[in-house]
Amino acid sequence: MASETYQSVVLAKRPTESIVAGETFELKTQPKLTEADVKDGEILVEALYLSLDPAMRGWLRDARSYVPPVQIGEVMRGAVLVRVLSSKSPKFSPGDYGITSCGWRELAVVAEKDLQKAEVPSNGKSTDALGVLGMTGLTAYFGLLDVGQVKAGDVVVVSGAAGATGSVVCQIAKLKGAKVIGIAGSADKVAWLKELGCDDALNYKDGDLPKKFKEATKDFIDVFYDNVGGEILDLALSRAKPHARFVICGGISQYETEKPQGPKNYLNIIAMRIRMQGFIVFDYAAQYSDARKELAQWLAEGKIQRKETIVPGGLKAAEQALIDLFKGINTGKLLVEIKADKGQDSSKL
User: 338 in helix, strand or coil?
Assistant: First the structure.
């Protein structure tokens, strides 16, 4: 018998440091949405896969940022791969796949302007629209090519290199003729980075990272693509070439502390005339289409590989999966399976 309800997850309490299981979020049950709830220009969708991203931790802070914070009692923000159940929009039909930021919920009614068709390229799959062809892939693309201005012969160092964004950065850098050094948090991740073509890869948990980092960057650094911050950012500042470009994409090592720590080697920014720049992928929205075409071509030609870590268990598994994201549970893109899509062949935890 079909359920007469659906579930969503709301923010219950702002965490001061780490997200707290059973406290930060609350699972809610609502009456099921149906075709009767759909107005002209709207679409009823069911969630298939939920994207989990480090940026979500920042959205929980009541602070000024590039988007407003998630409010207490509000459905947690997040991008979702959905399937159309019913449509009163000429642009969508039942069975279509799409991407929408409807958040952590099983069902949603969305406006046609808020739903983007998920087109699967050759050698692709529907969840690529959340990963290599989604915000993480676009973040890698614009951060490296526009902010980092990578060129052939550059030495590129990538922190968080085995994550959804970092792994794409490494591969684009190689496509552009750079020497690439990736930094990750396990032997398995280091091995995967080498499979992707990284010239070297370091496990920051191995011990004596400063010595190994210095040896790996004997030619110094032209471009540092940072997803981590903290000690690794300091090490990169100490090994920068004159006029190096530092792409500040994230700082996951600092997200779950009440008192984030800035770099100690910041005076090297002066001495080496480093250009250190933060960016937000939304600033490039007008260029998404062209970037996706190039990423899709690389994917179809086998020039870019990707991995997904898919957590089963539906919405009730999302909170713990987000906690585990900050413990390095994922290789590549981290997704929560809300409802299985038979077309997928990704590995699951």
Answer: coil
Beta strands in 204-301 (DSSP E): 221-226, 240-248, 275-278
Q: What pLDDT band is residue 346 in, cutting at 50, 70 and 90? A: very low
Buried b / exposed e over 201-235, threshold 16 CB at 10 Å, is bbbbeeeebeebbeebbeeebbbbbbbbbbbbbbb
Kindly state the tokens that stand for 16.
Answer: 């001061």
Q: CB of 186 within 8 A of CB of 205? A: yes
CA distance 240 to 223: 8
pLDDT of residue 347: 41
Report phi then psi at 227, rounded to 5: -110, 0
Which residues neighbour 51 within 8 Å (Cβ) at sequence distance 6 or greater? Answer: 78, 79, 80, 81, 130, 131, 134, 135, 333, 334, 335
The DSSP 8-state label assigned to residue 163 in this structure reads B
Q: Beta partners for 309?
A: 334
**pLDDT level of residue 342 (50, 70, 90 thresholds):** low
Place of tokens 């406006």: 111
Question: What integer best gives the mean pLDDT of the chain?
Answer: 95
- The pLDDT of residue 345 is 44
